[in-house]
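Researcher: Before we compare anything, I want clean individual predictions. No alignment, no superposition, just each chain on its own. First chain goes here; please echo the sequence and then give the structure tokens.
Model: Echoing the first chain and its structure:
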Amino acid sequence: DRRQRQMCIRDRYQRRVRGQKKKRKMATQGSIYIVAEFTIKKDLIEEFKAAVSQSSLIRLSNEEPGCIFYNLSQSKEDSTKFAMIECWKDAAAIDFHFSTDHFKAVGASIGRFLEAPVKITKYDFVA
């Protein structure tokens, strides 16, 4: 079943990275960037920012072994536009992230804030 498959992905990934020393994370060949663009309802902007901050999503995602960086940014030109900008070591790190409780919790609750569907774009590291 799906839950068992996600646990298997998580366990396999954790075993692979366990024991590695903590070092400065940098994007390299094979790294994957994700930009998730959100348009938030104007009257819910502050509540959205508070919900993401209080959820521990950013902190816990940045602590994941395959995360190079993970942050939320707000547009300077349009206060309703936000982007979750992420960089991951590889596809396995993304699979692991999608299986975490903190990702699922925010994903399940974010819909009420959205003015439009989320636009997600993946990029390969070039230089």
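Researcher: Okay. Second chain, same rules.
Model: Second chain and its structure:
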Amino acid sequence: MLLTTNFFKKEITKNNVEEISLALSCLGNICNNDLGSVVLNQLINLLSHNKPLIRKKASATIVTIFRKSPEIIPQYIDKV
């Protein structure tokens, strides 16, 4: 699990839009409670990305994480 977490953290901080987009799509599909709570801060930072595609995918991934683990919503609702 640690390797997966570090992989996604690295992928969503790259400059290549296609790589970030693919990582966000994959993250939305395979995310669980542990992985979601770890990468959520980086996803919230992507909401201010200069590309609309990345902002859209980041918001969709955040919604997916919130649906899978609603117990973390109170911690991050002010940031979103």
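Researcher: What stands out in the second chain?
Model: The radius of gyration is 11 Å. Additionally, Residues 23 and 54 are 10 Å apart (CA to CA).
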